[in-house]
Amino acid sequence: MKLRLEDLACLHPDQVLIEFSPEEREQAWQQIQAQGYSNQAACWRAYLNSLCLNTFLSYLDTEPNLTKPNLTKPNLLETALDKALNKPLDTPLNKPLVWPDLGDLPSFWDVVNGTAVELNQTRLVLIPSEEIKFTALRVPREWVDIPEWASHYYVAMQLNLEECWLQVWGYTTYQQLRDHGNYDIIDETYAVDAVDLIEDFNVMWVTEELTPSPKLTVKPMARLSSDEATTLIKQL
Questions:
Q1: What is the pLDDT of residues 143-160, one digit of tens each?
Q2: How far, in Å, CA of 154 to CA of 127, rounded?
Q3: Contact assessment for residue 140 and residue 114, using Cβ atoms and an 8 Å cutoff
Q4: Is the CB of residue 114 less than 8 Å from the CB of residue 49?
Q5: Which of 123, 183, 217, 231 is most buried, most CB within 10 Å of its CB?
Q6: Residue 62, CA distances (Å) to 53, 57, 75 in order
């Protein structure tokens, strides 16, 4: 039985559901097809990431509370903050920045799943998936272990290509993922079960407004000596 977007909204009232058009879906595919990828798996990964990124950025454009001040009427974030502080939000967020740069994304997606988006010095990593039954957020280890890649939040995005919608299942923090995520040595990912994700996206925006995330402190990965590297290679 296929669920309509309205049905999903009733089942998951705290989650963000975003529609995209068949034309936007096709445009993303044509764009990826025009780029060179090392294999079909990499091409498909790039397609999912491109469609996810484009859809999420379009969503941000429609949310005035996230990109510019709304002086005429309250919005979702202002309402949430008003309940917490009894005053409206008067500080707009900046235009979202994508990392890596758009021109570098094809070579990036060729090997890694995910894209970082920065809003007002708060970095989110969007992790797309097309699993029919979403069970866990799985983040490639590079997004956690490499200091320059680490982010404040990691967001689970489920794409339904047939019905043309994106479901934001929820998010987790760097600390939660690093300290409590289940590390899979086979596919080299940190995983957090779906039930442990924070579903309400507004919680993140409110948290950032009240207590902005501090600069991340990431323990650098240990470097192997030449002898250790040689030994490991011989064992392969």
A1: 999 999 999 999 999 999
A2: 7
A3: yes
A4: yes
A5: 123
A6: 14, 9, 11
Q: Percentage of the chain surpassing pLDDT 90?
A: 57
Distance CA 122, CA 104 (A): 21
* Band of pLDDT at residue 7, cut at 50, 70 and 90: low
For residue 36, what are the contacts with CB-CB under 8 A and spacing of at least 6? Answer: 106
The secondary structure of the chain in percent helix, strand, coil, rounded to multiples of 5, reads: 40, 20, 35
Q: Provide the domain limits for residue 82.
A: 5-235
ω into residue 64 within 30 of 0, thus cis?
no
pLDDT of 141 above 60:
yes
Q: Which two tokens stand for residue 124?
A: 């989110």
Phi, psi torsion values for 183, nearest 5 degrees = -90, 125
Domain count, the chain: 1
Sequence letter at residue 207: T
Tokens matching residue 150: 């680490």
Characterize 42-71 residue by residue with b for buried, 16 or more Cβ atoms within 10 angstroms of its Cβ, and e for exposed: bbebbbbbbbbbbbbbebbeebbbbbeebe
Whole-angstrom distance between the N-terminal and C-terminal Cα of the chain?
A: 46
Which residues contact residue 23 at a Cβ distance below 8 angstroms, ignoring those fewer than 6 apart? none
For residue 2, give the nearest of 119, 132, 131 by alpha carbon.
Answer: 132
pLDDT tens-digit profile of 18-27? 999 999 999 9
